[in-house]
Amino acid sequence: MAALGARGTAALPVRLRALWALPARRALAADAGEGKAAQPKPAFTDEAVQTLLYKMTGLDLHKVFRPEKKGLKPPHYKLMTEAQLEEATRKAIEEAKTKLIMPPVLNEREPIDDVLAEDKVLEGTETAKYVFTDLSYSIPHRERFIVVREPNGVLRKATWEERDRMIQIFFPKEGRRVVPPTLFKDENLGTVFQQDRHEDVLNMCIAQFEPDSPDYIRVHHRTYEDIEKHGKYDLLRSTRHFGGMVWYLLSRKKTDGLLIDMINRDLLDDATSLITLYHMLHPECQSAKEAKEQKLQGVDLIKVFVKTESQREGYIQLALQAYEEAMATSSAS
Amino acid sequence: ALSAGSRLLRGRGGHVVIRFALGGCTNRPFFRIVAANSRRARDGKYLEQLGCLDPLPNAHGEKVAGLNLERLRYWLGCGAQLSRPAEKLLGLAGFLPLHPMTVTGAERLRRRRQREQQPQAAPADGSAEPGTGT
């Protein structure tokens, strides 16, 4: 995971800070634009937000540890007592928690536009530009000097795309290619979405791009839009991308489909967490004020939210009715 | 390498230089920027590799060069000399000031191009005028 920057380091829980490898105190010029850490609006990285998103992600061990395509080996059986089995399950849950840590959600990075020197004398001598990379081993990639000498003599800092390419050439990272695969072009993404491989696309995207690059953000938004259009929320449940998707939908107030899906699957707790998050993000909306005044819980919260905020009121009411009938019959029987 | 009449025998001189070592294949050069004893062969055993330069432009029209500035500074601090192409490259990179021969070479090129253009312009004028005159 790439480095985040100075903002919000103190607010992060320890496990996130360690895993995202945040540097101690780097102030990037781009961070001035990331106003999400400002006081009124809660950020993606807040402790409270992260706990709610993590609860919603769910922990289906069978999905997290589903078999990946690896080399063929005969299965390995162990004979365990009950206590050992519990211990093994506990360890599996710990591992699953690390697998479910959410990738960062950042604003798009500002383009680099810095001229270091202008030497008009060099005009016309060269036909191609020179790209110089500093190969010192102990510098973080974000601070590496990568400069370009253009044929017209101007010495400027390299753009973000040139930087990413050069760093991948000299310090190759696994899973990343120098030229991004054609999969990430808009026309090809549709094909992959039809095969329901959203999670694979997102994993490849995380490996290939930096979290604040425009391509990363574009691919993620495209994926979330497609999931929301077809209602395939369950594809991402119990993966590390679920939190990001929920955050995206919340900021654009497109939570109806997700709410219906949760109620249909009898995940009332998740539905209430969703609405709590909605109120945290948009405290000025009417349902937020009502909820705060009356301190609503559970199904009442959902009902108030549905009345005031949602577009697909009818569907949600139907789903709620079905749920309540199911609860009534199951408690009666 | 240390026979009686060997070039590398100690006690006779030799200093560290930072220069280009040529590698690659036919019609495909590739330079490694290298700190080596001055009396070694150009492509022979070196002390440390400090970078590389690909003189042919890639698909994006760039000539890629990598320089390990930290180690370069170390060797320069140890008293290494630079070869002229290495100095020119570092001048282009901005690590050192622009080499005066780069500037001179650019001016010479410009003057040569101007001289080539003028004789073309003069006969062209000379051949055009009688045409317009008559």
Automatic annotation (TrEMBL), chain A:
<protein>
    <submittedName>
        <fullName>RT22 protein</fullName>
    </submittedName>
</protein>
<dbReference type="Pfam" id="PF10245">
    <property type="entry name" value="MRP-S22"/>
</dbReference>
<dbReference type="GO" id="GO:0005763">
    <property type="term" value="C:mitochondrial small ribosomal subunit"/>
</dbReference>
<dbReference type="GO" id="GO:0003735">
    <property type="term" value="F:structural constituent of ribosome"/>
</dbReference>
<dbReference type="InterPro" id="IPR019374">
    <property type="entry name" value="Ribosomal_mS22"/>
</dbReference>
Automatic annotation (TrEMBL), chain B:
<comment type="similarity">
    <text>Belongs to the bacterial ribosomal protein bS16 family.</text>
</comment>
<dbReference type="GO" id="GO:0005743">
    <property type="term" value="C:mitochondrial inner membrane"/>
</dbReference>
<dbReference type="GO" id="GO:0005763">
    <property type="term" value="C:mitochondrial small ribosomal subunit"/>
</dbReference>
<dbReference type="InterPro" id="IPR000307">
    <property type="entry name" value="Ribosomal_bS16"/>
</dbReference>
<dbReference type="GO" id="GO:0032543">
    <property type="term" value="P:mitochondrial translation"/>
</dbReference>
<dbReference type="GO" id="GO:0003735">
    <property type="term" value="F:structural constituent of ribosome"/>
</dbReference>
<keyword id="KW-0687">Ribonucleoprotein</keyword>
<dbReference type="InterPro" id="IPR023803">
    <property type="entry name" value="Ribosomal_bS16_dom_sf"/>
</dbReference>
<keyword id="KW-0496">Mitochondrion</keyword>
<keyword id="KW-0689">Ribosomal protein</keyword>
<dbReference type="Pfam" id="PF00886">
    <property type="entry name" value="Ribosomal_S16"/>
</dbReference>
<feature type="region of interest" description="Disordered">
    <location>
        <begin position="106"/>
        <end position="134"/>
    </location>
</feature>
<protein>
    <recommendedName>
        <fullName>Small ribosomal subunit protein bS16m</fullName>
    </recommendedName>
</protein>
